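Tutorial, part two.
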Amino acid sequence: MKKTNEKVLMSVIAGMTALQGVSSTMMNISATTSHVANVKQTMTKSDEFESKLHDAKNIVAEKKIDFNSAKGAYSVASKQLEILQAAYDARNVVVKQNYQATYDAIMNELQPILNEIESLETQINDSKKNLEEQTTLNEQATVNLEQAQKDLDAKKTELAELQNKLATLKYVADLTTALETAKSEQAAANEVLTSAQEKADAANTELTNAIADAEAKKAAVEEASVAYNNAVADVTAKTNLVAEKQAIVDQFEDENGIENARAELETAQADLALAQNNVTALQETMTQAQTAYDAAVNAQQTAQTNYELAVGELETAKTNLANAQESLNKAQTDYEANQKEIEDKNNEISALNAQIANAQSEVDKAQANYDKALNDYNSTSSPLEKAKKNLADFESKYATELSRLTAGSKGFYESLGCYDVLKEIFNVNNDSSSRGELASYTHMGQAGDATSLENMQASIAYLKEYDKLRKQNGLSTPKVSMAAMAVAQVNANYAQAEGNHSGVYGYSENLAWGYGEAGTGASPFRGWYDYEKKQYEAGNHKFSEVGHYLNIVNPDDETTGFALQKVNGVYAQEFGYFEEKDVVMSIDEFETSFNNYYNNLKSVDAQHKALKDAVINASGTTTKDDTAVTNALNLLNAKKNALTSLQNQKTDRENSRSGLETLVDEAKGSYNQAVQNTKAANQKVEEAKTTKANAENALNSAKAELASKENARQTASVNVNTAKAQAKEAQNKVNTLNDRINNWTANTEKAEKNLADAKDALAKAKTRKAQLKDTFDTATDEHKKASDVFNDAKATSEDANAHLATAKENLSKKDALRNAAKKAVDTYNTASAQVESLETDIAKLANTITAKEAEKAKADENIEALTADIETTANEKAKVDAEAAPLKNVKVVLKDVLMNGSKADISTVGNEILTAKLSALQVEVDKAQALKADLETKNTAYNDKYNEYLTAKSNLAKAEANHAEAMKALSDYLNKSDKNDKTETNKSANVGNSVDTRKSNGVNTSAQTALGFYALSGVLGLAGVAFTGKHARKED
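Running the prediction step on this input gives:
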C-alpha cells in the first residue's frame, strides 16, 4: 500500500569542479523534502539575524573562491582554443590549396574533353533540328503531293464528266449552224411578221376606206334613188296633169262639159279631203320614221365607237401577249441557266464530298497516329521527369513521415495517439501563465532542442542506465511516461536558458549541466548516483546533499521521463505517477517503439534525400525525343488544313448554290408569273377578238338598221311628198274646177294653154326622169362596185390579220428555237471552256506533282544524310564520353577525399600523378580533421568553462546581494526595537541561504560543504535536482 507524501519545493545543486592543480571542489546543494528530519530550536530574533548574516558572509567568501577559480580556468581554455583555431585555419588553407591544385590538374585534362563533348552535342542538336525541319518538309511535301494527286484525280474525273457531257451534244458546227438557222428563221419570221403587220395595217386601212366609200356610195344611191323616184313621181304627176288638162280641154269642148265639171268638182273635192287626211297620216308616219332613223344613227355611232375601242383593245392585248411571251421566254431561259449552274454546283459539291470523305479519313488516320505518338511520348518520361515523379509520388505517400522529420517529439507523441493529451505542455498560450511561459523556451523539433528526435533518442541510454541502477538496488523500474517525457523536455530547455528548475509541474526532478554520454565516466549519474550514494552511505542523509540519489532509488515512483539539451549539456529526469490518458511503457518497450519510429523516419529521410539528389543529378537531362510526336502533329495539322480547305470550298459552293437556289426560286416565280401573264394576255387577246367580233357584228347590225331606217324615212318622206302633191293636186283640181265652172269661157282658152304647159312640163319631167335614171343607175353601179371593194377589203383584212397572227405565232416558235439553239451553243462553249481550263489545271497539277516529288526526294536524301551524320557524331561523342568518364570519376573521388580524407577510396584513379595529388590531399585532410576534432573538444571545454565562469559570477552576485540583504535586515531590526523577541522556528538540518516564494508550501535551504578532490575526466560538471509542489500519490 502506497503512502501519501507531501513534497515541498526542493532545490539541490551539486557542483563538481576538477581542474589540473586544484585540490578541492565546492558543491552547492539545496533541497527540502520529507526525507530530511526537522529540528525545532528556539533563539532570539537578533541571534537569528546575526546567524543569517554570518552565513551570508561565509557564502560570499566561498563564491569568490569559486568565481576566481572559474575565471582562471576560462582564461586558460580561451587561450588553448585560440592556439588550436590558428593551427586549424593554417591547415585548412593547405587543404584548400592542395584541393584546388588537384582540381586544376583534373580540369586541365578534363576541360578540353568537356569542350569537345559540348561541341559534339551542339552538332548533334543542330543536326536534330535540321533533321526535324527536313522531316517536317518531307511530311509537308508528302501531304502536298497527296493533295495534289487527289486534286489531279478530281480534275480528271471532272474532265471525264465534261467530256462525256460534250459527247452527248452535237458537234459545235452543227450547233452553230442550228443556231444560225434558228436566227435566220427567226429573222425571216420577223420579216414575215413585219410584212404581215404592214399588210394587215394596209388591209385594215383599205377596209376602213372601203367601208367609208361604200357608205358614201350607198348614200349616193339612196339620194339618187330618191331623186329618181321623185322624178318618176313627177312624170307620173305631170302625165296625169296632161291627162287632166286634156280632160279639161275635152270637157270644155264637150257640150256637157260644165255639168261634168260640176260633177267632177264634187269628186275632186272628195279626193281633196281624202288627200289632206292622207297627208296628215303620212306626216305622222314620217315623224316616226325620222325618230327611228335618228336612233339608228346614234346606235351606229355607238357601235362604231365600240368597234374602234375593241380594235384598239385587241391590238393592246396582242402587244401585251407578245411582251408576256417575251418575258416568258426570258424567264424560262434564266430559270434553265440557273438550274444548270445549280447542277454544276451540285456536281462540284459531290466531288468535294468525296474529297472531304477521303480527307477526313486521312485526318482520322493522322489523328490516330498522333494520339499513338503522343501516348508513346507521354508514357516514356525523361530522366528528370522520372526523378521528379518518383520524388512527388514518394512525398505524397510519405507526407506524414516527412512532416514529422522536423516535428520532433510531437510527431512521436502523435504516432502514439497521446499528443492531444500532452499538447498543452507545449502551448505558449496555456491557460496557466507559468506553464505558457515555460513552453516558450521550447522550439519543437529544432536541432539542439530537447524535443529534437536526436536528443530524444539519446535519452534512451540514460533511461537504460537508470534502469540498471534500479535493478542493482533490487527495485522495479518505473514506466516511461510520455507526460513525464514531455515535462522533462520543457524543463530541460528552460534549465539550459535559466540555469535553474522551473518549478511549474508537480514532478520530482534531477537536473545536471556539463556532463557527457550515458554509461561513461561523464554520465550525470556519476554525480547524481555514484557520488551522492557514497555520501548517503557515509551517513549524510541530508536531502539537500543526496536528493538526486534518493530520487533515483525512491521505491514509490511510478513513472519517469528523461530529456537532454546538448547545446550546453543539460540533463533532466522527472519522477512521478500514473496519470489518466497517459501512455506508459517499459524502457525496453519505449526503446523499441521510439527506435522503430526514428529509424523509419530516418529511412524515409534517406530515401527522400536520395530521390532529391536523383532530381538534381537528372537536371541536365530534361528533354525527350519528341521527333515522332512533332512529325505526327505536323502531318495531322497538314491533313486538317487540307480538310478545312476542302470544307471551306464546299461551304463556298453551298453558299453559291444557296444563292443560285434563291435565284432559281425567283426565276421560277418569274417564269410561273410569266406563264400566268401569257395565259392572261392570250385570254385577253381572245376576249378582245370576241369583243371586236361582237362590236363588228353590232356595228354591221347598226349599219343595216340605219340603212333600213333610212329607207323607211325616205319612203315616208316620199309618201308625204306624194300625199302633199296629191292634196295640192286635188286642191288645184278643186280650184281649177271652181275656176273653170265659174269662168268657163275664159278658162277654155286657159285650159288649152295649161294643157300645152302641162305637156311641156311633162316633156321636161320625162327628160329629168331619164337623166335621174342615168344618175341612179350610175350611183347603183358605183355602190355595187364600192360594196365589192368593201367585201374584197374585208376578206383581205381578215386574211391579213390571220396571216399576222400566224406570223406572230411562228415568230414565237422561232424565238424559242433560237433560244434553245443558243442555250445549246452556250452549254457547249461553257463545257468546252471548262474542259480547256481543266486541261490547263491538270497540266499545272502534273507539274506540281513532279516538283513535289523532287522536293520529297531531296528531303529524303537530306534526312538520310542527317540521320547518318547524327549517328556518326553520337558514336564519336560516346567515345569522348568514355574518355571523360575516368576524369569525371576523379572529380567525385576528389570530393570524397575532401570530405573523408584517408577513408576515401582512391584506388579507382588510374592516373599516377592525380593519385599522388589525391594521396597528399588525404594526408592534409586527415590532419585538418584531427585538428577540427580537437578544436571541437576544446571548444566544448571552452564553452563549459565559460558557462561555469558565468554561473560563478552570477552566484557571487547573488551571494553578495543576500549578504547585503541580511545586513540590512539585522540593522533594521536593531533600530526598530530594543525588546528581546524570541521566535520559535522550524529549522532544517542545514541553514538555507535562499527562499523560493513561488510555492507557499515549499522551503529551500542551502549548505556549504567542502568536498575532497573529485576529478571527472577533466570536465567541469554541475548537477541539480528539484521537487516542486505538493502532490498526493495514488494509494495501492
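The two ends are 4 Å apart (CA to CA). In part three we will examine how such features are distributed along the chain.
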